[in-house]
TrEMBL record:
Domain of life: Bacteria
Catalytic activity, EC: 3.1.4.-
Stored SUPFAM superfamilies: HD-domain/PDEase-like
Protein name: HD-GYP domain-containing protein
Organism: Anoxynatronum sibiricum
Ranges where the HD-GYP domain occurs: 116-312
Hydrolase in keyword set: yes
Keywords, alphabetical: Hydrolase
Example of a GO MF term: hydrolase activity
């Protein structure tokens, strides 16, 4: 996570990047010019620093040279829709935090845009999971959970309208966190038992906000209440068993766990997608049900865009394109040889090893 102090920003120059707060809300948008007046306003709200690149999309720029024109174009489209969604959702969540209300129309439109965009570029959405560095910002996590719920919903053959409702329940699943104090919500270290108890209240609070204050119907509000319930009844808040949960809650549980373990925290390293998939399979039948989790895992790009791999012919390469329905057979560019290997065509070539992106880059 990169921090930028207000004192480091000169007056009179347009900002090169969006500036985020610790929840993932955009405080000052890219292009805005810093003025003494704006500086005063920020200082009055006790804002002394910002986070940069909370969406993790800036990381993608380092990889663009490896990708084909078509993929680069798709990435730009996805980046646009994704960034717009972050702006909309963070604005509404901040309003909920400050004045206790939000615009339901914006939530609906965001869900609609995401469904349309994922309908066109699913592989890019999933593919970017390998490149984007995901720090854990509540608002961005809400978008990512909605993205995964749409992907899962599509594979469960939900129609567009149903995908949108699933997406809305995903966008809103952690809305209760807008009423959890920042001291707990943003605590950089592990929570104590008491803090954990307070944090866990977010599911009950979220459900109340959605049903009582915003009058959402049950299928959209359910995931807020039930996304931490587990198959064996060890979850919260009610410890109910899996059969009793709404489909959206089950979907949210799977997607929420996946997004949490693939995100970075101060006290833990993010799992790579193939590690996260393995982890999910270890909690199947205990915390999550087998058919839904398998369905989810089948759609996840185990070797997302930008993944550095060693092939069984010992060539080192980088994943540059994904084929729909064949997550283990991507297109791999081998920079040292100046060649591209399409594993869907070259069936004897396999991925032998996945490199951690924190290791040195492929030359
Ligand atoms: Fe949650
Ligand atoms: Fe969550």
């Amino acid at each position: 996570m990169k921090k930028l102090y207000l004192a480091q920003i000169p007056n009179g120059e347009p900002l090169h990047e969006d500036l985020f707060n610790s929840n993932g809300a955009i405080l000052v948008p890219k292009g805005k010019i810093m003025t003494p007046r704006l500086r005063q306003q920020l200082l009055r709200s006790n804002i002394e620093y910002f986070w940069l690149d909370a969406t993790g999309f800036n990381e993608v720029d380092h990889y663009l040279e490896h990708f084909e024109m078509e993929t680069v174009k798709e990435i730009e489209e996805v980046r646009k829709v994704y960034t717009e969604s972050v702006k909309s959702i963070s604005n509404e969540f901040e309003r909920m935090r400050k004045i206790g209300n939000l615009d339901k129309k914006v939530i609906e439109e965001t869900a609609h845009e995401l469904v349309e965009s994922i309908g066109r570029h699913q592989q890019v959405y999933l593919g970017l999971e390998g490149i984007r560095r995901k720090d854990f910002y509540t608002y961005i996590h809400s978008i990512d959970v909605a993205v995964f719920m749409i992907v899962l919903g599509k594979s469960l053959k939900l129609d567009r309208k149903q995908q949108e409702r699933a997406a809305m329940s995903g966008l809103l699943h952690d809305i209760g966190k807008t009423r959890i104090h920042d001291n707990i919500l943003l605590k950089p270290t592990r929570l104590t038992d008491e803090e954990m108890r307070v944090m866990q209240e977010h599911s009950r609070i979220g459900h109340e906000i959605l049903t009582k204050e915003l009058r959402y119907p049950a299928d959209i509000a359910c995931a807020a209440l039930e996304h931490h319930e587990r198959m064996d009844g060890t979850g919260y808040p009610h410890g109910v068993t899996w059969e009793k949960l709404h489909l959206h809650s089950k979907m949210a549980a799977v997607c929420d766990i996946y997004d949490a373990i693939t995100g970075e925290r101060v006290y833990k390293k993010a799992m790579l997608p193939h590690e996260a998939v393995e982890f999910l399979m270890t909690i199947v039948d205990k915390h999550l049900d087998r058919s839904l989790t398998t369905q989810f895992v089948r759609n996840i790009s185990v070797y997302p865009l930008g993944t550095r791999v060693t092939l069984n012919n010992q060539e080192e390469g980088i994943v540059v394109r994904l084929h729909d329905g064949y997550p283990t057979r991507p297109v791999v560019k081998v920079p040292r040889k100046g060649t591209v290997r399409d594993l869907l065509i070259e069936q004897t070539i396999m991925i032998e090893r996945v490199h951690d992106p924190r290791e040195a880059a492929v030359g």
